[in-house]
Amino acid sequence: MKALGIAATGMLAQQTNVDVIANNIANANTTGFKTGRAAFQDLIYQSQLQEGAATSTQGTSRPVGLNVGLGVQGAGVVRLNTQGALTQTENQFDMAVNGRGFFVVTRPDGTQAYTRAGAFQLSSTGQLVTLDGFEIDPGINVPNNARSVVVSPQGVVQAFLDNDPDPTDLGQLTLATFLNEAGMRPIGNNLLEQTTASGAANVVTPGDPGVGIIQQGYLENANVNIVAQITDLIQAQRAYEMNSRSIETADQMLQTANQIKS
To answer: Which of 43, 84, 119, 223 is the least crowded, having the fewest Cβ atoms under 10 Å away?
Structure first.
């Protein structure tokens, strides 16, 4: 009887499903977080009767086959890159991407990562950095005598210095887009890496066609729908229970068969 192994794969799949849902719920208040959805696919089938096989010498054939599947397996976790709601913070160094695109971050080893979390601060040297101290690329250095910093929707960064009524240009923020954003690898700390699946980063200017703009003084909330996640969690629990019941039923049937044989 294959039911024991089949149901076991179903229970493992629902455990993965619950893990993904739990991670979504845990990050409901994480800036720039994107909801994940577990995707599954059926395993190979054992064919006992082939479709189209001849059933007589007069040319009749079998319209359907007898194929028994061997269960389910995880195919991946799909990241849903829909726009999260924007919350006003009144912090001049908080920035949100409204539309497509990722901020580019330079890590201490010189490699680049990408993020939607725009909760930036200044380092001790005036560099614009993430909450982990990683510099934004291109680098923005804010002078000590800056009264305020203004970032345009197109990413132009300017500062008002001392009593000068005219702003001073500090640099240009850029965004990175990817052909397959779902193919990026999450590495924690609100960062993602490019992969062969995502394709190479395309560095663009905010506001370009098909690219988002930068909203200063805002942060992007997680796009987690708590009600939908709770509903999915209940469904996953019910599916887990049904697979567990399948194992119990298969075990009872095996016990009955063994008793008959003895």
So the answer is: 43
Give the pLDDT of residue 48. 83
* Distances 66 to 49, 56, 73 between C-alpha atoms, Å: 5, 18, 21
Phi and psi angles of residue 255, each rounded to the nearest 5 degrees, phi first: -65, -40
On the question of pLDDT at 249 being above 80, the answer is: yes
Please tell me what DSSP assigns to residue 205: -
Please report the beta strands in 116-193, taking only residues with DSSP state E, as ranges in sequence order.
121-122, 128-129, 135-136, 146-151, 156-161, 168-172, 175-177, 185-188, 191-193
3-state DSSP assignment of residue 191: strand
Q: Would you call the peptide bond into 138 cis, given omega within 30 degrees of 0 as the criterion?
A: yes
CA gap 116, 35 in Å, rounded = 13
pTM: 0.87
Those residues with Cβ within 8 angstroms of residue 174's Cβ, 6 or more apart along the chain or in another chain: 104, 137, 138, 155, 203, 204, 205, 206
- For residues 9 and 2, the answer to whether their CB atoms sit within 8 Å is no
What's the one-letter identity of residue 45? Y
pLDDT tens-digit map of 21-73? 999 999 999 999 999 999 999 998 888 888 888 878 888 888 888 888 889 99
Confidence tier at 90 by pLDDT (50, 70, 90) = confident
pLDDT at 227: 97
